Amino acid sequence: MVALAYLVGKLAYRLRDVILLIAVAGFIALILNPLVVYVQRRIPRRGWAVAIVTVWAAVVFTGLRRVAPVHCCTGAPKGPCMRVSAHTAQASR
Q1: CA 30 to CA 7: how far, in whole Å?
Q2: Total count of domains within the chain
Q3: Which DSSP state fits 75?
Q4: Which of 5, 47, 48, 66 has its CA at 20 to 30 Å from residue 89's CA atom?
């Protein structure tokens, strides 16, 4: 029994990246489902509704990325970026 629990734990540890992707995808689907249902009322085919919501979500995500850029990538030494830079410099020594 202990060996089985160990093997299950080891398998879950090795598959943690896949499990995380599945969890994030499930969460996104849960969040976007009401919007798909709303669009589906207007367009009777669910496939088209899912496609429209997917394109809309991609456009919104891209727009948010443009509005709020990550300062660590732009080279601006502010706030958390300074700590990351200092930590990276210290780790490289």
Answers
A1: 31
A2: 1
A3: T
A4: 66
